[in-house]
Amino acid sequence: MRFEDLLIPKPEGLYCPPGDFYIDPVKPVSRALITHGHADHARSGHAAVMASQQTLDIMAIRYGEDFTKTRQTAEGRTTVGDVTVSFHPAGHVLGSCQIAVEQGGTRAVVSGDYSRVANPACAPFEPVDCDLFITEATFALPVFNHPPPSQEIGRLLDSVREFPERAHLVGAYALGKAQRVIMLLREAGYDAPIFIHGALQRLCDYHIEQGIPLGDLRPATMDKAEAKKLREAVVIAPPSAFASPWVQRFADPVISFASGWMQIRARARQRGVELPLIVSDHVDWPDLTRTLEELNPEEFWITHGRDDALMRWADLTQRKARPLHLVGYEEEGE
Fold first, then answer.
1. Phi then psi dihedrals of residue 125, to 5 deg
2. Are 24 and 101 in contact (CB under 8 A)?
3. Where are the domains of the chain?
4. Do 108 and 128 form a contact (C-beta atoms < 8 A)?
């Protein structure tokens, strides 16, 4: 069958005609299958939602229990309309999944956002044989070759030891990146209390409920006098907090930010970041091209991101590819 008979791009998102559902739609629809809980992929207002149980729980935390009229946990292989769907770990954030859609012996896999680097805060990426692979292209430029996360966390701990009198404020998105940074610190042997902004509390609590051992977390609600007494302290907050009065309680903090974009020094300077940490929850260029080589699908499509270089790579390696230019997917996960 033609791939376009199985999945087609629409303004609402990727649509499956034989299943009558959308995957990660950016507008309210009657039935949505959701890859993961980041707000650019998981929106409220859909009449029915199917996702992993963890993604459903995360959506309830972020949007309230009434975020949809009907929710269905993705378990095993499930028939939806005239297609079979299954969910497979994507290695991006807790609960993140690739969605496989099958009909008539043809399988398409929609990856959502994904990572091939081990992440102690979520299940690892699971390669799924497919005829059509649909990928993101957030970091689809050869310049993006991210270092090992342990190396970046080592730089953070070196700075903490070098400047023990200055609190280290690490910007990290509330879902996924914050918990990953915490787990990387724990794996590196940092067992001191980690202070977290209130916006991270509920999602960190949920990770702990799901068996992710984040260790001793304490609220970063101290006043200026208490903040000045902190030594060798790591404080994690969402990036938005750095533009709020909250940050003013810390005297001369080391401002850090954990993101794949920190490989671009101009971005670090624009954000006033003293200690950029290149920690990404997306595939970089080597992992993206390696994934396409390993899966070797008959064709791959690119949902969003930097597709020009990837299309050029497809041409050079004689692979069939198509950019979809879907809109509405931002950088929240980074």
1. -60, 135
2. no
3. 3-143+282-323, 149-277
4. no
Q: Give the pLDDT of residue 89.
A: 98
Nearest to 220 by CA among 212, 230, 205, 232: 230
Could you tell me the fold of the domain covering 149-277? Rossmann fold (3.40.50)
What's the Cα-to-Cα distance from 97 to each of 29, 75, 248, rounded to whole Å? 20, 12, 38
Strands 48-51 and 70-73, sheet pairing = parallel
Question: What's the CATH class of domain 3-143+282-323?
Answer: alpha beta
Q: Decide the pairing of beta strands 132-137 and 194-196.
A: unpaired
- Structure confidence by residue, pLDDT tens digits, 183-228: 999 999 999 999 999 999 999 999 999 999 999 999 998 888 887 7
Contact 37, 62 (CB under 8 A): yes
Rounded to the nearest angstrom, the gap between the alpha carbon of residue 183 and the centroid of all alpha carbons in its chain is: 15
Q: What is the pLDDT of residue 331?
A: 54
The DSSP code for 317 is T
Distance in angstroms (rounded) separating the CA atoms of residues 17 and 22: 9
pLDDT value at residue 130: 98
From the list 116, 187, 169, 173, the residue with the least C-alpha distance to 145 is 116
pLDDT exceeds 60 at position 333: no
Rounded CA separation 64/46 (Å): 13
pLDDT digits (tens, 9 = 90+) for 58-81: 999 999 999 999 999 998 899 999
Q: Is the pTM of this model over 0.90?
A: yes
